[in-house]
Amino acid sequence: MMSCKQATELMSQEQDRQLTFFERINLRIHVLICDACNNYRQQMSVLRDACKRFGSGGTP
Amino acid sequence: MELDRQKELNALRPDLLRFAHLQLRDSGAAEDAVQETMLAALVGNHRFENRSSYKTWLISILRNKIIDIIRSQSREVTASSLSDDETGDDLVDSLFDQRGHWQETARPGRWADPENSFEQQQFWQVFEACLDHLPERTARIFMMREFLGLDTDEICKEASISTSNCWVVLHRARMSLRTCLETKWFAGEEA
Ligand SMILES: [Zn+2]
After folding, report:
1. Is the pLDDT of residue B110 over 90?
2. Which domains does chain B have, with CATH numbers?
3. N- to C-terminal Cα distance for chain A?
């Protein structure tokens, strides 16, 4: 079982590269049973949305 | 009509300058990028179609100017290793225990209604402050990825670092930003 620290590394890298099959499976299992990392993943997607908005001048 | 456009352009100038400065971290270079953007906007005004907002259109011109500047600068930068500041090990060490699990006080919470936050100007002030908090090189690499939309291969080349270092820097940048946003914004919001 991977640690939360490793999981956060993969949750960042999945935004920059294609994860391997085993990385994807391991990560999926981890976030299924770890609330904190599941929340972290949501935060990563919010962060990306925020950057998209900011980077395209879509802020109020 | 033309006059309105020019007024609008002037009114947006501070926004453009802040945007450029966040990424270039250099007043002179930021000023140049904005100057060129405004010039291009005035000359190419007829090319602006009302499909997007004027600000969005200007930012898209500015993004290209910033990429040009970064590309011309990177030729002057020689390969260097990352400083401790940039690997951000301190932050990571403070968030996890020795086995790599979240410290009890550092466990991420669910961010309530981000769309609602995006509509608020105060949120973006916090967001900019958090970006400003990143070490200079980290911020540049992060913004090349997220705002300028460059892929990691090009970023590594421009920043003269290896691909794996690039991933490390991006990870630390994201970790630092979400920690900053959580403490300075979302923790205060009602869940
Ligand atoms: Zn976890």
Report:
1. yes
2. 2-72 (1.10.1740.10), 79-188 (1.10.10.10)
3. 43
- DSSP calls for A1-60: ---HHHHHHHHHHTTTSPPPHHHHHHHHHHHHH-HHHHHHHHHHHHHHHHHHHHHTT---
Structural domain total, chain A: 1
Measure A17 CA to ligand 1 centroid, in angstroms.
21
pTM of the predicted protein model: 0.87
| The pLDDT of residue B156 is above 50 | yes
Domain that holds residue A20: 4-55
Which residue ranges in chain A fall short of pLDDT 70?
none
Distance in Å, CA A3 to ligand 1 centroid: 6
Q: DSSP letter at B148?
A: S
A54 touching B (Cβ < 8 Å)? yes
**How far is Cα B141 from Cα B144, in angstroms, rounded to an integer?**
5
Q: Tell whether A60 is covered by a domain.
A: no
Residue in A closest to B131 by C-alpha? A51
Share of chain B above pLDDT 90, in %: 51
| A:2-31 residues touching chain B, CB 8 A cutoff | 3-6, 8-9, 12-13, 15-17
- What is the C-alpha separation between B55 and B59, in angstroms, rounded? 6
